[in-house]
């Protein structure tokens, strides 16, 4: 958990050392300011995680989008675009990796067939533990 410090000038929001610094002018739009910050930073983190696993898959995503997916953590479009909820990066990195691998597996197998889960399992042998964590704790990942 990070402390929030209000500042009189500067960027709307930044993470500095172990504290978030928010410009006082943005306090009335605090949640929106945080969401914008998380969306910007989620893209970089998710690109890095995709790059970590891309060699394990025969195909690569065509694009990456960070959106508000309501009650979904991710989705894979038919054109190969991977979509992730901005809240994904609030999860532990092991769970972020599960979400990334899950969506990358959809580039090969579109449905949750036994082959799909076998593919996920070849990349993350403990995916069931990560999936269970997300099912149990995902509802608490919010700002």
From TrEMBL:
InterPro entries reported in the protein's UniProt record: UTP_pyrophosphatase-like, YgjP-like_metallopeptidase
Coiled-coil residue spans: none
Domain YgjP-like metallopeptidase residue range list: 31-137
Protein name: YgjP-like metallopeptidase domain-containing protein
